[in-house]
């Protein structure tokens, strides 16, 4: 009896152990560890402006339209829509299963409230102009009309109507932007300034905010009320603000991070040799550029700006610093389907000829060798690639003109906050990643009165008039020609010096599935899994 009991107990223990071993993978949490190149400055969709923030927020909130894994705009909180024959009225039908993380239904009124909030001047959203195609949006944002006069209305709980000022062929893609993300009115009214903190933030996306330790980590947990929750394969996503690129690579190779973004291009060759196709360098719609403060001498003089831009050897930057992972550019807009960017008129010259002409231009302006010297400070956000670019350009300006060039850096959120708040500078590094695939998205950065992104306060009435005219042109080819003519003015005045179109660099661990390269650089965690 005793022996039999022991044998039976052993058999039971083995069966139980086998069952537990088989069950453990299912019971273990599926957690994706994402390296993010900076700490978010805000989790308010009306206030964010850089991808460090949007990568997080688009996991938490879902607009009427959203991006799939391939970077294509697809139905999001809206399951379908109809567009009027004249292209100015969009009628969205919201999903019946759409719910907030607290169980409340997602309604058309939620989007009315959220879209009005972005345009409300009291909220001071620096990105409000993205949605200015909506009727009266620009006037509301300027305080000339009331938020209630914005061209949005709830027909019923599940039907939202948006009326535009004019046909906008890329409007559905515009709605994927952070300014199109909804917020929960009751959440804001109840929790005040703390509405977007862990334990308080109410979300309608695939994840909800579980924890946030500033400068350490931000944890998003699966939202059980999300309309497509069954298809979400991750239990949690943890974002780590790793601004130090070398540290990000070390943590990636040690297995601490499943994904890293924007690592140093100098590591590209070694990482590819070690990790193969899990290291991605994807062409994307972006431009890295230097902006000059047009408000004060000497940068208020177009000759000085042009000369400095001409003296930059972009081929050196692309090949020696980015090892071919970037392409040199002399235009602000990257090439897009149907649109050819207007390059600066010196693009066809050799670098030697550019430098010779740059010296003459600078002499005309009264600066340079044998004339008045210049002391220039280049501002950039902390990043080894940006530091190497700034160091190289500083050396170019010293060599060509004999100027004294120094450098100053800040973390990414502080750098952009300073520029957006209108702080004085001389030369500053900036970059733009397309919010939608249209040159207008790049060219409106420099219109007069763009408070958030015209960092150098450039102003040219002819340029502004062409951008305005493009909105009234419904013929696709004619519209692109107008935008091309506007860009030609911009490249002649050189309020900015376009430098590079950069490939987006990602590192993926072998655990990560569902990541797809795309020109929009959109990689929602919703479509990923870990093994």
Low-confidence stretches: 1-26
**Number of continuous helical runs:** 16
Whole-angstrom Rg:
26 Å
Main structural class:
alpha+beta
The biggest sheet amounts to: 8 strands, mixed
Spatial gap, N to C terminus: 46 Å
Mean pLDDT across every amino acid position: 92
How much beta, percentage-wise? 15-25%
Shape: globular
The total beta strand count reads 20
Helical residues, percent = 25-40%
Short description:
The chain is α+β, with helices and mostly antiparallel strands and 531 residues long. The protein has helices at residues 2-27, 51-60, 108-119, 137-141, 171-174, 185-191, 245-253, 268-275, 302-310, 314-321, 351-364, 384-401, 412-420, 440-443, 461-472, 476-493; strands at residues 31-36, 65-67, 73-75, 78-83, 89-94, 152-156, 159-163, 207-213, 217-222, 236-241, 259-261, 279-283, 286-292, 326-328, 375-381, 404-410, 427-433, 496-508, 512-513, 529-530. α9 packs antiparallel against α11 and α15 (461-472) runs antiparallel to α16 (476-493).
Structural overview:
- This protein is α+β, with helices and mostly antiparallel strands and 531 residues long.
- 33% of the residues lie in helices and 21% in strands.
- The chain is built from 16 helices and 20 strands.
- The chain has helices at residues 2-27, 51-60, 108-119, 137-141, 171-174, 185-191, 245-253, 268-275, 302-310, 314-321, 351-364, 384-401, 412-420, 440-443, 461-472, 476-493; strands at residues 31-36, 65-67, 73-75, 78-83, 89-94, 152-156, 159-163, 207-213, 217-222, 236-241, 259-261, 279-283, 286-292, 326-328, 375-381, 404-410, 427-433, 496-508, 512-513, 529-530.
- The strands form five sheets. Strands 11, 12, 13, 14, 15, 16, 17 and 18 form an eight-stranded mixed sheet that branches. Strands 1-10-9-8 form a four-stranded mixed sheet, covered by helices on one side. Strands 4-5-7-6 form a four-stranded antiparallel sheet, with helices on one face.
- Strand 2 and strand 3 form a beta hairpin.
- Helix 9 (302-310) runs antiparallel to helix 11 and helix 15 (461-472) packs antiparallel against helix 16 (476-493).
- The radius of gyration is 26 Å and the shape is globular.
- The two termini are 46 Å apart.
- The model is unreliable at 1-26 (pLDDT under 50).
């Amino acid at each position: 009896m005793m022996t039999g009991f022991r044998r039976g107990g052993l058999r039971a223990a083995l069966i139980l152990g086998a069952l537990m071993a088989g069950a453990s993978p299912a019971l273990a949490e599926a957690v994706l560890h994402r390296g993010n190149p900076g700490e978010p400055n805000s989790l308010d969709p009306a206030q964010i402006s850089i991808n460090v923030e949007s990568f997080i927020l688009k996991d938490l909130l879902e607009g009427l339209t959203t991006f799939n894994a391939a970077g294509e705009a697809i139905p999001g909180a809206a399951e379908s829509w109809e567009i009027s024959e004249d292209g100015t009225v969009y009628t969205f039908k919201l999903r019946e299963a759409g719910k907030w993380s607290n169980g409340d239904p997602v309604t058309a009124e939620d989007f009315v409230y959220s879209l009005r909030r972005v345009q409300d001047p009291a909220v001071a959203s620096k990105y409000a102009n993205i949605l200015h195609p909506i009727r009266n949006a620009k006037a509301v944002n300027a305080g000339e009309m009331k938020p209630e006069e914005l061209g949005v209305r709830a027909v019923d709980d599940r039907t939202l109507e948006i009326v535009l000022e004019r046909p906008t062929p890329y409007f559905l893609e515009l709605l994927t932007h952070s300014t199109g993300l909804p917020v929960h009115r009751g959440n804001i009214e109840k929790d005040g300034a703390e509405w977007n903190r862990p334990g308080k933030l109410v979300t309608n996306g695939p994840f909800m905010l579980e924890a946030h330790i500033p400068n350490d980590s931000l944890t998003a947990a699966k939202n059980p009320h999300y309309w497509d929750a069954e298809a979400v394969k991750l239990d949690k996503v943890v974002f780590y603000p790793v601004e130090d690129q070398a540290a990000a690579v070390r943590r990636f190779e040690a297995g601490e991070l499943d994904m890293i973004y924007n690592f140093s291009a100098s590591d590209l060759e070694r990482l590819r040799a070690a990790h193969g196709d899990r290291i991605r360098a994807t062409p994307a719609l972006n431009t890295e550029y230097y902006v000059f403060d047009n408000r004060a001498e000497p940068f208020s003089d177009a000759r000085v700006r042009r000369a400095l831009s001409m003296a930059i050897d972009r081929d050196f930057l692309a090949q020696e610093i980015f090892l071919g992972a970037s392409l040199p550019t002399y235009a602000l807009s990257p090439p897009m389907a149907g649109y050819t960017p207007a390059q600066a008129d010196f693009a066809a010259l050799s670098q030697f000829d550019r430098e010779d002409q740059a010296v003459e231009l600078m002499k005309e302006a009264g600066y340079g060798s044998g004339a008045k010297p210049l002391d220039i400070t280049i501002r950039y956000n902390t990043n080894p690639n940006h530091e190497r670019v700034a160091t190289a350009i500083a050396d170019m300006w010293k060599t060509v003109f004999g100027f004294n060039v120094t450098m100053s850096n800040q973390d990414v959120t502080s750098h952009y906050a300073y520029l957006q708040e209108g702080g004085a500078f001389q030369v500053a590094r900036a970059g733009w990643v397309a919010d939608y695939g249209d040159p207008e998205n790049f060219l409106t950065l420099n219109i007069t009165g763009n408070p958030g992104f015209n960092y150098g306060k450039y102003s040219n009435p002819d340029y502004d008039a062409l951008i305005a005219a493009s909105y009234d042109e419904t013929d696709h080819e004619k519209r692109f020609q107008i935008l091309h003519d506007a860009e030609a003015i911009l490249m002649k005045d050189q309020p900015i010096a376009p430098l590079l179109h950069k490939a987006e660099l990602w590192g993926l661990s072998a655990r990560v599935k569902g990541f797809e390269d795309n020109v929009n650089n959109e990689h929602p965690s919703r479509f990923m899994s870990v093994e």
